[in-house]
């Protein structure tokens, strides 16, 4: 019966590692996405200002 507690610990550790990696990965991807959108918005704002200044 000494194997049962070890298996339970491994299962809990696996679930913890999996949920932590998914959570951190999602947070990092969300942060990257926000920065990419900000760069895109700045580019189009600059483009629009250039277009308006030429008129």
TrEMBL record:
Primary location: mitochondrion
Gene Ontology biological process terms from the UniProt entry: mitochondrial electron transport, cytochrome c to oxygen
Subcellular location(s) per record: Mitochondrion inner membrane
CDD domains: CcO_VIIa_fungal
MF-aspect GO terms: cytochrome-c oxidase activity
Keywords, ordered alphabetically: Membrane, Mitochondrion, Mitochondrion inner membrane, Transmembrane, Transmembrane helix
Keyword Heme: no
Gene Ontology CC terms: mitochondrial inner membrane
Protein name: Cytochrome c oxidase polypeptide VIIA
High-level lineage: Eukaryota, Fungi, Dikarya, Basidiomycota, Agaricomycotina
């Amino acid at each position: 019966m000494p194997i049962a507690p070890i298996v339970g610990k491994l299962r809990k550790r696996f679930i913890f590692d999996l949920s932590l990696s998914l959570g951190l990965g999602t947070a990092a991807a969300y942060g990257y996405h926000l920065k990419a959108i900000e760069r895109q918005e700045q580019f189009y704002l600059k483009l629009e200002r250039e277009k308006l200044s030429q008129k």
